[in-house]
Amino acid sequence: MAATIPASPATLQPCKKNVSRSMLIRSPPRPWRRRLPQHVVIAAASSSSRGPKAATGGRLETSTDAAAVAGEDGDVIRRLQNGPDVRGVALEGENGRAVDLTPLAVEVIAESFGEWLREELQQLESGRDGGEVRVSVGRDPRLSGARLGAALFAGLARAGCSVFDVGLATTPACFMSTKLPRFSYDASIMMTASHLPYTRNGLKFFMKRGGLTSGEVEGVCDRAARKYVARKMGLGGGRGMPPVVMRVDLMSAYAQHLRNIIKERVIVNAGNGCGGFFTWDVLEKLGADTTGSLHLEPDGKFPHHMPNPEDTTAMSLTRGAVLDHGADLGVVFDTDVDRSGVVDATGTAINGDRLIALMSAIVLDEHPGTTVVTDARTSDGLTRFIQARGGHHCLYRVGYRNVIDKGVQLNADGVETHLMMETTGHGALKENNFLDDGAYMVVKIIIEMVRMRLVGLEGSVGTLIMDLEEPAESKLMRMNILGEAKYAKQRGTQAVETFRNHIQEGKLNGWVLDDCGDCSVSQGCLVDTNDDPFDVDAYMYRQRRREAHCSPPCFHKLATVAAAAASIELAP
């Protein structure tokens, strides 16, 4: 009997019938050679066979059992894939779970990734043939990190990659190592299992374009599965020189990158009021560049302009400083900093309805579906802006205290209300104890600017309100009430009612009374239908001027008459 590769000596029992048969022989390993699969099949002819068939009757075959074992070994690697990541058990200690993320598994996955990466780069960069492929490796503080890290380095080096060890790092930092100018690696691997127990570990893969897709990781794992089977068989796993790994400090550079994002260029116009502290003690200590700020020193005569975010001079000067210095934001405070307005990087003034819309966009992103309370001088465009973002707009009486108190009351009644804001710039947030704090409002806006940069959104904060429909014309009229002060509110109420009657009687051509007034405040109207309404210091209605050229009739202008905020001059 002959065989292409002889097995260890064994006695073959002669067959009782003159036919060929197969016998399974288990061959013990030889210490002086690589171990081959222990299952071989020898096809033997009977002793009576003759001719060429007898001479070549023995042949080596891979058994079905051996193929099954190889498939199971390969599946060990494939099962480690978890979407776009690799995750597995790296340490003993989990009931019912054996360690499957072994150093060998990590090494073959890393080697396969390095090979895939080189092929991918050659396709992306048509002129690139060979050359250095640079990969950074970071890890979280898991106990298995150092041991698996060594295997990761070895696998990448076997694939011909230059390896850069960034040590303890965050996943975003690893990705940014492909972007930051000092590093600009071709790819990065973060060793982490995220929120999973300490016994687990895993791999996340990044290129300059972002994280690998699930399909790409599946391809890497398929390649790694074949390598894993070969290594388990003792093939192709010879150890060479230890990999050369360069240690680099990534986290310091990444932290600087984050600081640079926070270092917005902010112009502050304190109007010689109390707002200078926000420049010195807040922004500059955070690293912001406040070059070009205006009128920071307190001066009770307010020699440049009144500290007022509604003041056209204050906003115009701030706009000029923002444009001259290329700032990201301009801030205007009133004297005691309970109100504020801003100017975006394009020089657009954001106060009044615009400021309420900006704060509504920020708050509704944090608290979807919340109610926003404003005074009734705001426009229909603001209402549509809030509703388009899933919020509710409660119009209430003029006076910042009225607006804030209404928000407090709505929350007490179970109506979630996170923002209360008046067109003058008074704004209060539930998270800030319902306090109207102009500086806190600006902090929220700056945080939103930073968030926009972190997620890669282009443009200034003004882009958040690009779809705000603004009135074709807006004018604030303040009229004095003459006579004794104790009768001022009574006379103002009389003036409001007179104006209302004129409109209802059709004496003002083109004007109609707003339909707001017959439903509950929580639905966005002025009439307070609560069982226990609180005192208010404004008595008001909303009127619209209907434009004759619109079909169907549309309302372009809105007039709100309030005895407290828009006073009417009465004859004594």
Tell me what you see in this structure.
The chain is an alpha/beta fold and 572 residues long. The chain has four domains: 68-248, Alpha-D-Glucose-1,6-Bisphosphate, Chain A, domain 3 (3-Layer(aba) Sandwich), CATH 3.40.120.10; 262-349, Alpha-D-Glucose-1,6-Bisphosphate, subunit A, domain 3 (Alpha-D-Glucose-1,6-Bisphosphate, Chain A, domain 3), CATH 3.40.120.10; 351-464, Alpha-D-Glucose-1,6-Bisphosphate, subunit A, domain 3 (Alpha-D-Glucose-1,6-Bisphosphate, Chain A, domain 3), CATH 3.40.120; 479-570, no CATH class. It contains 14 helices and 23 strands. It has helices at residues 51-55, 64-78, 103-124, 145-158, 171-176, 214-232, 251-262, 276-283, 312-325, 353-366, 380-388, 400-412, 438-454, 488-504, and strands at residues 21-26, 39-44, 60-62, 81-82, 85-89, 133-139, 161-168, 187-191, 200-207, 210-211, 245-247, 266-269, 329-333, 340-344, 349-350, 371-375, 392-396, 417-421, 427-429, 435-436, 511-513, 540-547, 554-562. Strands 4, 5, 6, 7, 8, 9, 10 and 11 form an eight-stranded mixed β-sheet that branches. The protein has a five-stranded mixed β-sheet with strand order 17-16-18-19-20, sandwiched between helices. A four-stranded mixed β-sheet has the order 12-13-14-15, sandwiched between helices. α2 (64-78) crosses α6 (214-232). The longest helix is centred in the first third of the chain and has 22 residues, at 103-124.
Proportion of residues in extended strands: 15-25%
* CATH H level, superfamily name of the largest domain: Alpha-D-Glucose-1,6-Bisphosphate, subunit A, domain 3
CATH architecture label of the largest domain = 3-Layer(aba) Sandwich
The backbone outline, from C-alpha atoms, is elongated
Q: What fold name goes in the CATH topology slot of the largest domain?
A: Alpha-D-Glucose-1,6-Bisphosphate, Chain A, domain 3
**How many structural units, i.e. domains?**
4
Subunit structure: Monomer.
Enzyme class: isomerase
Cofactor: Mg(2+)
GO molecular function: phosphoglucomutase activity; phosphomannomutase activity
